[in-house]
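Appendix B.2, paired examples.
Example (i):
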Amino acid sequence: MRTAPLFLALIVGLVGLSSPGRLLQARQGAPGRAAGGAVDRGSVSMGEATDRRAVKGVPPACPNPVMVQPDVFPVQVGTVTSEDGKKWVVPAPVTEGAVAPDVYDTCIGTGDNPGYLSQLQTVVIDKDGVEITGYIHADNYFELYVNGRYVARDSIPMTPFNTSVVRFRARYPMTYAIMGVDWETHGGVGMEYAQYNVGDAGMIAYFSDGNGTHTDWRAETFYVAPLDDPNCVRVTAAGRDSSFCSQAVRPVCAQKDPKECKALHFEIPPDWTSPKFSDARWPAAIFWRPEEVTNQPAYVNYAKLFGDAEFIWTRNLHLDNLVLARYTAKGPRR
């Protein structure tokens, strides 16, 4: 999560990996619909995670002393237990695997990385496929999958904002699947920094075949926080909508006692990246204007790389912290 309306620049750059990534943390399991086709109403938890831990392969903090801010907390994940006894990794399970090279990253230098294309290795998904280069910018973290295979993840889960690039070879129809995460420093309650502020989210991706994020993508939320009352989230067969919940920078629960803040969790379908997975019941992705998402150099200085792609998320940039987005391209888009 980020306090300013920023969008984490995720230009996915592939570091060679021809086998699926391995989860660093246990990934939530069952499909997001209860047995018999009933709508999954979600599981409610309250308070922060108590077992915060570092994410393997991810720097706990920016090594560049110029960029270190006194209110930047270490990058961590944690586990919370919901009222029904289920355990949830917050803000999201993280996959161990290839990390996308950065086009822009002030954490390791001045920001610009002019040699980013030379750092790419092609992830071969289908030997007879076409080679695609992709750029992704997200607030704050992303993982990219194509045709069910892991491609790369963001190098920086939270701050500073970066832009990434990827390259892969795959055949059409081509299913793009992106997990976007609005990171948090107070795991389990969706807030950040000492002020317990609510951050924001968003993501944009563009690929060299002309495909990119638009409102013809599908996007669904799987972790909503912070909430004073989880009943504000409308859950129907047509999807989840938290836009009716309070949009305050600091919710009432945070003003009283953050331990009283609640969250709503939904199980991630284990096959959500697969071309065979049906996202027909997921809502259409929502378009957000660039100025509503980010003003950071990581995106603004490289906006041309994103072609006609649009920033997307769900209906709520502030409370929907873990969003899965999908799109199947039948061919190049020109």
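Example (ii):
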Amino acid sequence: MIFGDSLADVGNNNILKTWARADYSPYGIDLKPFGPTGRFCNGRTTVDFIAELLGFDHYIPPSELTNGTDILQGLNFASAAAGIREETAQHLGDQSTMKEQIDNFKNKILEMNVLLGGPQNTKDHFGKCLFQVGFGSNDYLNNYFVPSVYNTSKLFTPEQYADDLIKQFTTLLLEIYDLGARKFALAGVSQVGCSPNSLALGSQDGTCVKTINDANEMFNTRLKTLVDTLNKDHPDAKFTYINSYGLFQELKDRASTLGTFSNFLTNYPIDNNESIGGPAFYALEL
């Protein structure tokens, strides 16, 4: 089961009234034979790769387009521009927030109860599933660092904002736990200050915006602490932290050996297979 934002969305936003959509070219240009599916990527997303590594013979489908027994094979609830906070990215139009994604999950549970023969069987089924959860990027990119629209940067210092995000995230995450989930992969926030949008609006020399990345690291530090706490308090479950920030740094450090141009962050498109910085916000498959 997948909950998250544009880094994991595989088409749920296609049916929403929003600017955060990717069901048109050049998205999906390297995803043969599908083409544009709603993935904010030229090819496969991280969750697609994970599905392959876990041995699935298919990618986990968007929950909004999946029904019947197919819902037992995994569901992707992710919605581009989604955040932990309810107001995040509302200026872009509709999207499913973290809370709304959990509500959508609860609706699917009602169907699963019928298919599996009752709530306890459904919970037992969830105990065998992997739940990937990744939020926070939009709470910075499309909230805290958009002071012309949102007042969060006036209400909170970066440290206070990270604390508040983690508090809300914890409450929502434990809802998923209470529904039967026991295996969690929790993705940290990547280097949002290196996104093409952040560079275009906040960088004078093409380097990553330090104030944004510093705020992202504050969130990640608290998320890592939360993972330790959850593992201690819930011994019947396993919570794993995914270091998205560090993985992105490794890609930057290894840009030349990966065959990408040194200025890949600000020049899109260069070539289909020569960039990890996508249009405005999103990553590309190398």
